[in-house]
Records
---
Amino acid sequence: MAQIDRYLLGSIQFSSGCPCQCEFCNIPALYGRVARYKTPEQVCAELDKLVAYGLSASVYFVDNNFIPNKRAVREMLPRLIE
Ligand code: SF4
C-alpha cells in the first residue's frame, strides 16, 4: 500500500476526454471527444479518502481539459469548496 503521507501531491481526475482537436494532441484519440465526468460526490469521496490515508499537502487535478463542460464544473466547484 502506498504511504500517502509521504507524498507531496495527490492526484485526482475529474473528467476524461476532450472535445477540442488541437493538432499536436492525442488525448481526443485516446480518450474520446465526449468528455466524461465524475459526480461531485465521487470527487469529494476521493478527496476524503486521500485525506483519510494521510495526504496533508496539495491535490493536483490531472484532467485532460478541465473546462470543456462549464456546467459540470459549476456543479462540482461549490461542493469542492464545502
Ligand atoms: S486536451 Fe488540451 S491540448 Fe489536447 S485537444 Fe484538448 S484542449 Fe487541445
---
Amino acid sequence: MPIPTDVIFDLQRRLGYAPPSHVLAATLRDIFPGRIAVVSSFGAESAVLLHQVAAIDPATPVLFVDTGRHFPETIDYRDRLIAHLGLSGVRSVGPSAEEVARLDADLSRATWDPDGCCAFRKIEPLSRALAGFDAWISGRKRFQARTRLDLPVFEIDGEHVKVNPLASWSEGDVAAYVARHRLPPHPLVAQGYLSIGCAPCTSIVAPGEDPRAGRWRGFDKTECGIHRSTSSPTGK
Ligand code: SF4
C-alpha cells in the first residue's frame, strides 16, 4: 500500500533536522523495529553510515546488491568492513545465473544499455529483497551531486519509507567522522575514485568535478534507478 504523505510530513517534522545518530536510533529501534534495512554499496563513504548503524545494532539487516560487475576491491572491502564493524546482518542480493545468461551473456550490456543492465542487476534484486521491509536507509548526501541538492531526510519510495540520515552532511563532516573513528578506506579512493559502483561504469573523478561525475561517463545517466525520483514533504 502506498505511504500516506502525512506520515512523511510527520517524520520530517520530528526528525528531519536531527543528528544522523538520532535519526538512526529512532527509526531502527522505535519507528520500524524489525521492519527496516540498510542498503549499502560498500563504496567510498559507506563506512560512515555502517559504523553508526553498528553502534546501535550490529545485527541490523544490511542489503548489498552484488551485481556481479563490482571491482574485486569492493568485494574485499565489503568483507573487511563486515569484520571490522562486527556486522552480522549483511545479505548479498543480485541477479540469478539464469538472468545473467539470458540478459547479458557476453557481459557487454553496460556499454549499450546501462538502464537495462541496472534494471536486472540492481533494481529488480533490491526490489525483491525489500519486499519484507517497510522502510530502508541509504547513505546519500546532498553534496555528492547537483541532482541530490534537494535530498530530504525522509522520502516516499513507492510502498517504502526511505531514510537518508546523512543528507545534510558535507564532505568535511564525512572526512572528520572517518578520521575520528579511524575507519578503513575503500582501497580505490586513493586512486581517485570518489564514488564507486560497478567496474564498467565507474571512472576516476577530476579535481572540481562532482564526486559522482565518474559514474556512467558518456551516458545521460546519473543514477542506477534504485534512487528513483520520490515524493518528499517539500514537494521537491
Ligand atoms: S552500474 Fe553498470 S554494470 Fe552495474 S548494473 Fe548498472 S549498467 Fe550494469
---
Amino acid sequence: MKPLIGITVNYDFHERIGEVTGLGTPLQDWDYIALDYANAVEAAGGIPVLIPNCKDPETVLPLLDRIDGLLLSGGSDVNPELYHEPLNGGKCGPVFPRRDDQEVLLLKKAVEKKIPVFGICRGLQLMNVAFGGTMYQDLPSDLGIYHSVNVYQRNHAVHMVNLKDGKIRDILGEERIGTNSYHHQAVKDICECGIVTGTADDGTVEAMEFAVGHPFTLAVQWHPEMMYDSPVTAKLFAAFIKAAEK
Ligand SMILES: [Mn+2]
C-alpha cells in the first residue's frame, strides 16, 4: 500500500469561519487546511490523512501506529509560552495552544517511533521550539526584515535560499534555490539538536534538520506545497514519501 501521511491542520474557535463559508452555526470550532498539502502528498505517491485537533491530544497518538509519515503544516504562530518568553503583544499573531500542544506531542512520539517528519513553515518553527529553540516573534519589528510576501501568486519565488551541507542539499542537488515566503516569524535560537541547512541572503533560517536519531526530520520555512509546479517541491515530497515507505 502507498504510505499514509498524517497532515496536521489549523484550529480556530472564531465562528466567523462558519459565517464566511456559509456552512456553520454560531459557537463552532473549526479545523481547516489548504488543499495544497494533500495535493503535494498525493502527487508524490502518498495517501494524505488529516489529523484533527482533538480535545485530548492523547486521543490521536495511536494514529502513529498507522501512519508512515507526519507532515507538520503551516499556520498560526507557536505559543511563546512554549519557549518561555512573554507574548510580544501586537507582534505575535493569534495563538492556538490546543494545536501547539497536540503537535508537540505528536512530533515527540513520531520521533520516538522513527516516523519520518516533514515540517513546513510553522512546522519548522514548531519543531525548533519543541526541541528547545526560540523564535523572533515578528521579523519586521524585531529585525526590520520582511518575509511575509503575499503580493504574488503563491508559487512565485520571492527570495533565494542558500543550502548548506545536509539532507536538503543532498535531495535537491543544488546550492541555491528560489522560494516563496509567507512568514512574519523566524527561528532565533537554534535548539540543541537543530542543524541549519538553509538560510536566506539576510540570514533568516529557511531549512533545518534535527539530529534526533532517525534519518528524516526535515523542515523548511517556505511553502513548497504552494509551489506546485516546482522541481524543488517534487523532489522534497518524493524524498519524504520515499522515507515513509521504509
Ligand atoms: Mn522566507
